[in-house]
């Protein structure tokens, strides 16, 4: 029997494929034929309208064109003729005058040219005699002979903690030779002339000290020679210019500290008069120079508390010359910026030199690249041109087109429908003459078809429901169609349908004859499939869920992670104070997060997380210091904590000592020594603060961090591509972090509004959501079970209530659906296809809906059968299965195929869902054709034997069975179908559907593509609050990497120049193109 069953299933599959193939061929033929008819109609109709419009419009256009064209031709001919006459006269006259003028001008030009050559020759030999250090002032300086100029210092007399100090000296400049001259020539190119002699106000030691003090400038600015040259000019002239007294005024002198200079004084404070225009130009040439090591502008380091955003020329030099704030300045320099000549003191000549623009070459000094000089970059638009949208009549073009399509279709359809309806009235009269039913009976016939209550008995001679449905009497149709009159396709279709019906009838009869055997075999096979559940794999990582392994983004991320290790795992906390207002301090307004009490409480929380919170995993204690990112290790073992409390080095004493104005100073320049975090690195204000941006405002170079109302604590955790290197304690630590933060936020909800997440928060919430949905699944199945039991069991007699109910059958049907889901999961557990939480949550409902539908179809088909005394129970069940089995088979296969086609998606979550759903529906159909049919046969046997449902051991006295018509059948037969078949209702339905379809098409371009993380979270998840805070108050997005893969020849200089961004690189190098692209807002 088992092999017979297998053979029958094999035959069914072959027949099924044949049916599907024939169906596709016939469907394609009808689709093409109907499409051609409709297309031809619309082409003819619309062509006529458009043609009439264009004929009138083009006729007017052509007429106007010929009138204007002929007028222009005549006018042009007249103008050309007159112009030629006048032009010839003026050409001859003016040519004579120009020729005479050109001869005189050429003669004078050649005379002046020869005089200029003579003067240049004279300067060429005379100029080297006046060798000086470029002063750029309005006075001449003496050459090597030592004439002119006055010094303010010479030689070293002492030192302090920051460097050597010069001796006060008011004499003339002295010659500089030897090693000191070479050092000065290297430090200040162009100061020494070809003859190698120079009178200066510095000796060799001072020249060497100057070289050492300007070394940091060279270290940061060597990538931009123009900036380096310009920024060294003030220091070179201040140290060695032979005309120091013209622009330097000594403010303070102290006794010398060197033993050999006891009777002398050293200069500790000076005023340096300098042109403000010169200072501004120097700053402008250096403003855009970047520091690759910090990924910030160099001016952020050189400008002290102002940082790069608020830096200006005067602020730059004020910090460089400030003895108290700048730890590299041995002398205090008070820069006096002079721009108005009337403000210049008597006997003072402000220092003013030629400044080299960063995008221009000056002598041997090269220009800077685009990466370090914005003016050297090509011009780019401030915004990029988005794709043009289709506009029609001032509205969305697609929406207007769909509206016009719906209107034209509706008008055309209504016209045709009205014509056909009027024409069909003749058939109504003919039907009445042939004693046919009234058209109202046509709607009743349709209702009976929809309610599955059609009868084989004819009401009148020569008349059946088919004649009514076709709207014409049967006398016009042949009574019998001979086999020879059928086409090949009709024969194949008829044979296929008959064979499939026969096979299903036989199968139903077999299951009804041997219900226990079929149920036993089916349960064994199903339960063996369910055993694979123990082998299934659950995927909760969002990357594995939503990014295809072969997608470009996933492959590029994997390549980066393999070669550079993944980005840090992060734990992040957003904290907003409650009941705290902004306050005034000095001339500034500080946001609520700068409240000292609030900062103290947050510091306590932060120290608890970093020092006290721990997890015990496998008997080991794990603290944050065991897994955190330590960029300065092994020299510094402190964790990288991005929090403004790190401005005070996470120390409560320092926090209480320094006011919040210290935070303002650090936010201006986070690279100041006193602002560095405990890990010896900067704290980035835009990472550690939130809520300082207004609505629709983006992060700029100079945001107002003082407005912040949200404090952010970010804890980077080490991450590895090799997951085995991730300590098991990491999971335990993150769990403890989530538990602690949940309790802390609940305990402090009156004073703080807290949102938080760790790296594993999303995975944990997905698991929690799947577990929390289990009661929902159970309740849904219970409700569906009750519905099936009540809906399938129907009677109008209370005496048969316990017999006619279908509790056992309903319970069995629901269990079969559940077993089919488990069997599908088990099957893919054997195969090794990972499962997702989406499958556990959705597929039970999907299969339940389809399975319950099939249950009702099968039971209703059995109830509607015409019974005779010769029909046995197995035969009747076989007829019912044969009647609805083929349609259930086609429906199940079509649904499964649709889901299996969804498995072609590259998204792993969608792929897994489609595969599990398709297999669940197939298994559900197989189980319903075996287990449910057998169970249904047993239930029919019980009911015929008048046994109680559930308690089948109890038999009721025989009661005559009632014959009732069910409620839903009455609704479809007497109300819904007759109403739907009314002419005006049918027309309205078609028109409404057309407008609905066109509206749907018009809305397609407005669908936003994307999958936000918060959509996957349950409504009560704490992660949703974090996502809300991140969008509202955060201003830092995910990292972006540009990686050059292996195989690129980095040793070739030409290949290097195609990548780099500093001096000497190609103008279209990779890094320069990335910089230009980053300057176009809202494009990338």
TrEMBL record:
One of its GO terms (biological process) is sterol transport. The keyword Kinase does not apply. It comes from the Eukaryota. The chain crosses the membrane at residues 6-33, 68-93, 100-127, 398-420, 774-795, 807-831, 838-863, 916-938, 984-1004. Keywords: Disulfide bond, Glycoprotein, Lipid metabolism, Lipid transport, Membrane, Signal, Transmembrane, Transmembrane helix, Transport. One of its GO terms (cellular component) is endomembrane system. It is found in: Endomembrane system. Pfam families: NPC1_MLD, NPC1_N, Sterol-sensing. It is a multi-pass membrane protein. One of its GO terms (molecular function) is cholesterol binding. The keyword Transmembrane helix applies. Residues 773-938 form the SSD domain. It catalyses: cholesterol(in) = cholesterol(out). Belongs to the patched family. This is NPC intracellular cholesterol transporter 1. The lineage of its organism: Eukaryota, Metazoa, Ecdysozoa, Arthropoda, Crustacea.
